[in-house]
Amino acid sequence: MSDTIAAIATPQAPSAIGILRLSGPSTLTVLERVFRAKNGRSVLEQTPRTMVLGDLLDSEGRVLDNVLCVFFPGPDSYTGEDGAELHCHGSPVVLDEGLRALFAAGARQARGGEFTQRAFLNGRMDLIQAEAVADLIDAETAEAARNAALQLTGSLSRLVDGIYNGVMELVSRFYAVVDYPDEDIGEHTREQMLDTLRRAENDLAELRATFSRGQLLKSGVPTVILGKPNAGKSSLLNALLGYDRAIVTDVAGTTRDTVEEKVRCDHVLLRLIDTAGIRSAENEVERLGVERSRAAARQASLALLVLDGSAPLNDEDEAAIEVATTVANLLVVVNKSDLPRRIDVGRLADRFDNVMSLSAKTGEGVAALTDAIAALYPAGVDTPGRLLTNARQADAVSRALSAVQSARAALRIGMTPDVVLTDAEAALAALGELNGKSVREDLVSTIFSRFCVGK
Hints:
This protein is of the alpha/beta class. The protein has 3 domains: 5-110, Probable tRNA modification gtpase trme, domain 1 (Gyrase A, domain 2, 2-Layer Sandwich), CATH 3.30.1360; 128-210 and 387-449, tRNA modification GTPase MnmE domain 2 (Four Helix Bundle (Hemerythrin (Met), subunit A), Up-down Bundle); 219-376, P-loop containing nucleotide triphosphate hydrolases (Rossmann fold, 3-Layer(aba) Sandwich), CATH 3.40.50. 46% of the residues lie in helices and 17% in strands. It is built from 16 helices and 13 strands. It has helices at 27-34, 92-104, 114-121, 127-138, 142-152, 155-179, 187-208, 211-219, 233-241, 284-299, 315-324, 345-351, 366-376, 391-412, 417-435, 441-449, and strands at residues 5-8, 15-23, 35-37, 52-57, 63-72, 83-90, 108-109, 221-226, 259-265, 268-274, 302-308, 329-335, 355-357. The strands form 2 sheets. The protein has a 7-stranded mixed sheet with strand order 3-4-5-6-2-1-7. The chain has a 6-stranded mixed sheet with strand order 9-10-8-11-12-13, sandwiched between helices. Strand 12 (329-335), helix 12 (345-351) and strand 13 form a beta-alpha-beta unit. The chain is flat, with a radius of gyration of 29 Å.
């Protein structure tokens, strides 16, 4: 990290403000070449962490923009090294030219996530906090943003550190026993070790159980819209989205493939999947569409079963019901309430817990449906900021949990200290991967390569 990096830290679109970002040992040298303060003082003479008005110069020394510049001296900066930001007018052309000027002054283009990677390598944050930065940027609901923000402040890291430190203390005790075999583990000490492992096991089991919730929070609830052809599935998709995403006609079988979109229902993010109507296919294309509908149902957490309220139930409805009832959560939507009702809603209420009537065409009842969906996934969590949100974290926790369980079992049945020590060290290694204490360099590079440039 002996070089200085630069990047555009805001989206490349016309806006009020655009930000150029710098980090590295030559930050001040680069700024001296591209920034001229209105107060006449050099960059070195400016007060750190204070916005200074001045001119941004292009690579040929010409005034490019009137900007605000702020310098962050290390190690108390985001990356842990000298850094700076230039707040420009948000013209993509200005930002591009400003970036070229920074390169000409000695900086190089930052790679994706390199600013946050430097923060991790310089000890400004651990790996869990670094991944929370990406989650915060990608958050699509307020609840997801709150969880990521709390993780960024160390909520999950403190829990993991507590488990890690407890197991580390146990390991150090066992090393003493291995090095000095004449010193037996007393019964009191053995019970203390078992208690440490029991608490670690409980904490890890609870943490692993948050992964499914964290996935729904981060990526949205996979929601499949099922029903027979022409029941109004695509109309319901359009009504929930608020615009015409799917083609809607009176011709049955218009939808031949799955159509996916995201929509927020209050605090809940749904990954909506509109599907082909469930029925005996009339041709190969429709058969493939029906099979994709069934596949989408197998992967869904919520099913919206759309029934045509203007017609009695038939065999095609029953076929759709059979598929929908395999999904964990089910809402039955009786559509076309704007037409004379011919379906027996009372019998449906006897068969299903959640039955709602609406008109996807007029929008009547759609708000009640979104309220019902939100009620299935209540806002707030018991442990905010402590949800696992990616498969890497969940895998590390699972391996740590398995190792702790093995160590506890070995200690309980009186296995030799070296056996317990092997399992306890495996738990430490997995926890070290989780928070970055002992993570491989190639894994670190892979994690940060998924970040956007400028962060």
